[in-house]
Amino acid sequence: MPKQDIPILSMMAKMPVGTNLEETNRVIGNIEDILFDQPEIEYAALVIGLTETSKMDLAWGMGTADVNEAQIMAKLVDKEDRIRLADEITDAIRERLPKVKGAEFTFVDLGEMMMGAGSESPVEVKIFGKELSVLKGVGASIAEACTDIPGLRDVELSLKDTKPEIRIKV
């Protein structure tokens, strides 16, 4: 199926677990500036943190789950009014994203999502085992090795850090 030039960009931003709302908002504000530096962006909508509507989105595997997460949607000007394709604009934005240790910025291919292409990623590596800490280490090593492969983007692990918790027995 040929790649579609969808006039909407969608990005999920996940700051490290424990990042407060103010810091998430600061980083997302920087990304908003980067978006509007692109002449093809007509308008953008940003959602930071958990909202009532995002609870339903979470049920479908979309949306934000906490104050360290944000969803960004940007509408491009009409195709005839721009020189670059959506993918080229996405690449230009990706190159300028802030370098935040532990943060993940992932662009969602809405064309593939709408066509029901299954997995959001064209390449998926699955690692199996019983020890989560070992799996996380192996996954991180593979992800790190993949960062040097030309053309691969948005490399991520599905095993995520969780919020710290305290258990109290009474």
UniProtKB/TrEMBL annotation:
Q: Which GO terms describe its molecular function?
A: xenobiotic transmembrane transporter activity
Q: Which InterPro entries match?
A: Acrflvin-R (IPR001036)
Q: Which Gene3D superfamilies match?
A: Multidrug efflux transporter AcrB pore domain
Q: Which SUPFAM superfamilies match?
A: Multidrug efflux transporter AcrB pore domain, PN1, PN2, PC1 and PC2 subdomains
- One annotated Gene Ontology cellular component of this protein: plasma membrane
The protein, known as:
Uncharacterized protein
Q: Give the source lineage, highest ranks first.
A: unclassified sequences, metagenomes, ecological metagenomes
